[in-house]
Amino acid sequence: MGGDGGVDVTVAAALAAARAADITLVGDRRAIEPVLAASDPAGRPEIIHTEERIEQGDSLATILRHRTRASLRLALECVREGRADAVVSGGDTAALMALARHVIGQMPGIRRPAICKALQGSAGPFWMLDLGANLACDAAQLVQFAHMGSAVAQASGCMHPPRVALLNIGTETGKGPPVLHAAAALLAAESRLAFVGYIEGNRLFRDEADVVVTDGFAGNIALKSIEGAAWMAGQLLRRWFESLGLIEQAGMALARGRLEALRREMNPQRYNGASLVGLRGIVVKSHGSADAEGFESAIGQAIREVQGDLLGQLALRFAD
């Protein structure tokens, strides 16, 4: 039940998502029940009660050894024991990854889990990984990320073999560090992947790739830059609207429907939810500042991965 918005956000999202899945809430019943009572849902979700939570200053050692009744741990144990198909959390990313590896474990054949997120491109979503779990990667690890990202894309509804690209500072063969050259050679020889070469950061949204592979250092910087640019675009648009005169505002009112559709399309809450890929269970990280719509989107991502049999697709790719 983690996240900046607390139970007001997570419970509202869970109730909205309950139309598509059976939802279990893990957290303090005393905080959850009043929100449920105010919403008066037709069918109340199950609540697994615990008053223990992971605190902001907890070290990973404390989290792993002593927070045995923390809500995040109990939720992950539900997946391990087969009582749930997926976990969605807005809690700390490092704590979530560490606990997930400890409680659920990694899939055989996968060296390290990665953080993968869908981003909206000009013609639909594309998936990018790693976004911060592995700061330095060798060529073989990047190839694994390509397979992991392709599996997520297909489980999430990509209808064609996902086109895979390596994030680089140029598209020419000699550009970038040696590790990317080695990874590109391996990917070009991999018959199970549709490798399309390098892609630059300014071309990410142009429908040139369905899966963009990078190490966690560059990926996290790219993601935060994208989020910052989206915020700045919103600020500039708001200032522009505020500067319009009365006649101009009246004219813009005629286009309110189209503007609202554009705002809806650009709303990052629609694409909230990053998958921790490579674990024995499905785990989705919601952004801590997500609103109810955003948290519902993260739950939707988890549902799609369950319905698309992400774990089965990963098992096939890493069977040998």
The biggest beta sheet is recorded as:
8 strands, mixed
Termini separation comes to 37 Å
Global shape: globular
What is the residue-mean pLDDT, rounded to a whole number?
A: 87
DSSP summary, beta strand count: 10
Q: Give the total of domains.
A: 1
CATH topology: Isopropylmalate Dehydrogenase
Radius of gyration: 21 Å
Look at the structure and name the CATH superfamily.
Isopropylmalate Dehydrogenase
Describe the fold and architecture:
It is a single chain. This protein has helices at 6-17, 29-39, 60-66, 71-80, 93-103, 139-155, 178-188, 216-242, 246-254, 256-266, 292-307, 310-317, and strands at 24-27, 46-49, 86-89, 114-121, 124-129, 163-167, 194-199, 211-213, 274-277, 282-285. Strands 3-10-9-4-5-8-6-7 form an eight-stranded mixed β-sheet, with helices on both faces. A two-stranded parallel sheet has the order 1-2. It contains twelve helices and ten strands. The chain has a single domain, classed as Isopropylmalate Dehydrogenase, CATH 3.40.718.10. The protein has 320 residues and is α/β, with parallel strands linked by helices.
